[in-house]
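Notes from the 1:1 (GR / supervisor)

We went over the backlog. Supervisor wanted to see one worked example end to end before approving the batch request, so GR pasted a single chain during the call. The sequence is below; no edits were made to it. Supervisor asked that the structure be written out right there so they could see what the output format looks like.
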Amino acid sequence: MSALDSLALTAIPPQDEALRQPVRDFLAQYVAALPAHVRARSWGGYDAQLSRELGARGWLGLTLPKEYGGGGRSAYARYVVVEEFLNFGAPVGSHWIAERQSAPNILKYGTDAQKRRYVPPVCRGEMYFCIGMSEPNAGSDLASVRTRAARTEGGWVLDGQKIWTTNAHNCHFMIALVRSSGTADDRHKGLSQFIVDLKLPGVTIRPITDLSGDSHFCEVFFDNVRLPDDALLGTEGAGWEQVMSELAFERSGPERLFSSIVLFDEWLAYIRTPQGRTPESVRLAGKIGSQLAPLRAMSVAVTSKLAHGESPVVEAALVKDLGTGVEQAIPALIADDLFRRPAHDVPMELLRTLDFVTQAAPSYSLRGGTRDILRGMIARGLGLR
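Structure output shown during the call:
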């Protein structure tokens, strides 16, 4: 059975769907004063207070074991909550990576001491992680990373550089994929994951200002950084397999469909007004909605696999590739609609939101794996190569 055949229609169980209204009620008040162009940043935003409040309400770490501070619930429960975070444009970037993939990765591969040290504060919204994968000259070709951890008495010495490291300047730790043996020519062999305290001597973080004026992307430099022996996550040399498992969490969620959703909702509100409604805009709304609906169904189906303990790497890549295509189309289609109108008829906040999303949209098909890389994975999964 192919990856496509395995994505059966799935309904979110009622007990998990019941989470939706309380989350909506809370977020409606929390984001009420935030303009749409700010909310459009959502999981790229940063609000440590919000993360702590979500943790206090039990809405972080929902799928993680209660023994480590989590909710002990299914992947469906987390899907509902995350979907609402994105729908409201809540600034959840502070805890986003830690809760989405770092804590599950530690639970899967870490020692008991690592689990007890790192996972509970992630569930409380108090500890933040970033991803240390890409490097200069080793972005899409992740297997060619050159950052190296060398064995030393009592631990490791880390040297090298990571780039495009989202929110590193606001994070406490990084889970870094580095080479612990061999050379870059060895490809997948000799790679390991390490938990790096970003406050250690020798760590330098430099934010990168992007086209939109945001600076959440960062360069991170390691110069003779001394790591304790227990910084190693999982098995030495098994880093590639661990990263591939981790990326299923990164590629399968609603964030791969809804990065443009605040813009879409803002535009829908406009075309519902007598001034904004046209036959063309109504048809366009139907066109976009008809693409989002089946993609959401596919995303929920991937969540079903996660809920059953599977690792749907190919299916997640498929949803991510198709989803980012729609995300990128939304600002272009909305721009075509708005720029056919007299400028004074279009609300300024809608234009500001369109401006941000248009500038951010090219990154949608880069983050979490480039389109070409994902399509290669999908082709192999479908038996086409």
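Supervisor's comment: The mean pLDDT is 91.
Batch request approved.
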